[in-house]
Amino acid sequence: MAVFNPQQLKKLEQQAKRNRGHFSHAQLNELQAQLSCDLDTLLKALLPVAATFSQAPISHFNVGAVAYDKTTGGAYLGANLEFSHQALSLVVHAEQSAINNAWLNGANEISRMAISDAPCGYCRQFMNELDKCAELAIMLPTLNTSLKELLPSAFGPQDLDNSQRLLASTQSNIKSLSHEISDTLKTHLQNAYAPYTGNLSAVEISTQSHGQFYGRYAENAAYSPSLSPMQGALSQLALAGLKLDEVAINAITLVETKGYENQQAVADAVLKSYATDAALLHVLAEME
Ligand SMILES: [Zn+2]
């Protein structure tokens, strides 16, 4: 099987860090030529690169995932993220991290996922919320399969009469805000996916020298696998090779939909896992 040598992996890791875990279609083409392999083999060959972004202080089990966006032909890395001294239910799984990375950066259709280990039940359920998930191909180290095969008799959005899907939800408009926020954060708020609670919400982590990082709420029909905006933003930071308490933070903003807010507690909980005194600015939005 085609694999990158240690030197190539080091270079790819640096490249991924600079691009926050994104490889463009042109870059993938180049890498495919380098390995003379098919796309699925290349996605699997990128898994060790993805896994280097894992932050797993509890399990020390580093998982990598790669989501392929059919519409742009680009790939997005993901890695697991654990929070010390917090409930295990708050961890971000590598598959969630890759899908979140793709979604936040404009992917429209994830058609293939490569994962370094078999996806847990929670992740199968998370992937089941994706638009066109019935056609989702899944590549594991020793098996190429599909979500359909891994999650038969699935419970999903249709069981709750939800016709929206992750990566294909309709954009909402903002009526008013309790505090001014950046235009990019507004866009993430408008594109959050909260069909079950109605709490469109998003987070912006603004750093002094590494730019901004975003997260938006991704709900799930089974509720528990939902990804909070703060978890999503911290996962984005991890994919740039950074940790919250190792970078200077200018501001952290959480914006939620007034009357439906439910994210402050989880945001505070995961922030407590880091040695940072960065305060959370809580903004309420009224949506149209
Ligand atoms: Zn999982």
TrEMBL record:
<dbReference type="InterPro" id="IPR016192">
    <property type="entry name" value="APOBEC/CMP_deaminase_Zn-bd"/>
</dbReference>
<dbReference type="GO" id="GO:0042802">
    <property type="term" value="F:identical protein binding"/>
</dbReference>
<protein>
    <recommendedName>
        <fullName>CMP/dCMP-type deaminase domain-containing protein</fullName>
    </recommendedName>
</protein>
<keyword id="KW-0378">Hydrolase</keyword>
<dbReference type="InterPro" id="IPR016193">
    <property type="entry name" value="Cytidine_deaminase-like"/>
</dbReference>
<dbReference type="InterPro" id="IPR013171">
    <property type="entry name" value="Cyd/dCyd_deaminase_Zn-bd"/>
</dbReference>
<dbReference type="GO" id="GO:0055086">
    <property type="term" value="P:nucleobase-containing small molecule metabolic process"/>
</dbReference>
<feature type="binding site">
    <location>
        <position position="123"/>
    </location>
    <ligand>
        <name>Zn(2+)</name>
    </ligand>
</feature>
<dbReference type="Pfam" id="PF00383">
    <property type="entry name" value="dCMP_cyt_deam_1"/>
</dbReference>
<feature type="active site" description="Proton donor">
    <location>
        <position position="95"/>
    </location>
</feature>
<dbReference type="InterPro" id="IPR050202">
    <property type="entry name" value="Cyt/Deoxycyt_deaminase"/>
</dbReference>
<keyword id="KW-0479">Metal-binding</keyword>
<feature type="domain" description="CMP/dCMP-type deaminase">
    <location>
        <begin position="176"/>
        <end position="288"/>
    </location>
</feature>
<dbReference type="GO" id="GO:0072527">
    <property type="term" value="P:pyrimidine-containing compound metabolic process"/>
</dbReference>
<comment type="subunit">
    <text>Homodimer.</text>
</comment>
<feature type="binding site">
    <location>
        <position position="120"/>
    </location>
    <ligand>
        <name>Zn(2+)</name>
    </ligand>
</feature>
<comment type="similarity">
    <text>Belongs to the cytidine and deoxycytidylate deaminase family.</text>
</comment>
<feature type="binding site">
    <location>
        <begin position="80"/>
        <end position="82"/>
    </location>
    <ligand>
        <name>substrate</name>
    </ligand>
</feature>
<dbReference type="GO" id="GO:0004126">
    <property type="term" value="F:cytidine deaminase activity"/>
</dbReference>
<dbReference type="InterPro" id="IPR002125">
    <property type="entry name" value="CMP_dCMP_dom"/>
</dbReference>
<dbReference type="Pfam" id="PF08211">
    <property type="entry name" value="dCMP_cyt_deam_2"/>
</dbReference>
<keyword id="KW-0862">Zinc</keyword>
<dbReference type="GO" id="GO:0005829">
    <property type="term" value="C:cytosol"/>
</dbReference>
<feature type="binding site">
    <location>
        <position position="93"/>
    </location>
    <ligand>
        <name>Zn(2+)</name>
    </ligand>
</feature>
<dbReference type="GO" id="GO:0008270">
    <property type="term" value="F:zinc ion binding"/>
</dbReference>
<feature type="domain" description="CMP/dCMP-type deaminase">
    <location>
        <begin position="38"/>
        <end position="158"/>
    </location>
</feature>
